């Protein structure tokens, strides 16, 4: 080999790529493939991904495992259906218990001749027992009437039987009242509710389960434009807690 030919070979070797370049290019290609796969997985919906995963498992010899994993979503649907049946069943039981409680209230009051003095209804607040106008109090007064004591004795019996929370609410019509005892309807409504509370507690009702509220004329149930409507708004409501009452 002549010196001239050897110089040409050395020049060609110097002009070629360095040896590490091949490995570096392979690494770049692998990283590019990796990021392409990540991007494709990010845009793949779950159903397509599960299908592709099953194909990969079958190709790797895991056919039985892939087949056994397909029904995995069935139990969740069954559980959801069961939970829905439980919720619906609980709601039905509450409605049945509510109706039964209302029937018990009416029977209890009718047996004592008090059915005409009250109105019974069910609401989101609970079972509402509404004493009609002048059953418990005279107009513009907060002293319990002797005739109204029988109704409170019946309420005491219901409290002892049901052992639920009780809210006593005082209401009035929109006609203003100004007296030494009651500067406004607020004081009158609270005084009436408190009078009922004191009687029930003295009769043996647990004071921890009873509280009072006075709403004056802010919660009317009828129009104050007529005397009949104002009479309906002058009332005392006893609300038995729904959760306590509705439990069989």
Features:
single chain; 248 residues; alpha+beta; 9 helices; 60s Ribosomal Protein L30, Chain: A
Description of the molecule:
The chain is an alpha+beta fold and 248 residues long. It folds into two domains: 3-73, no CATH class; 97-246, OmpA-like domain (60s Ribosomal Protein L30, Chain: A). 56% of the residues lie in helices and 12% in strands. The protein has nine helices and five strands. Strands 1-2-5-3-4 form a five-stranded mixed sheet. Helix 3 packs antiparallel against helix 4. Residues 63-90 have low confidence and may be disordered.
The biggest beta sheet is recorded as: 5 strands, mixed
The CATH class of the largest domain = Alpha Beta
Poorly predicted sequence stretches spanning 5 or more consecutive residues:
63-90
Write down how many β-strands occur, each being a DSSP E stretch of 2 or more residues. Answer: 5
**What series of H and E elements makes up the topology?**
HHHHHEEHEHEHEH
**Which term fits the overall shape?**
elongated
Helices and strands in order:
Elements: H1 3-15, H2 20-42, H3 46-59, H4 63-69, H5 73-111, E1 118-123, E2 126-131, H6 149-162, E3 166-171, H7 185-202, E4 210-214, H8 227-233, E5 235-241, H9 242-246
Parallel strand pairs: 3-4
Antiparallel strand pairs: 1-2, 2-5, 3-5
Helix pairs in contact: 3-4
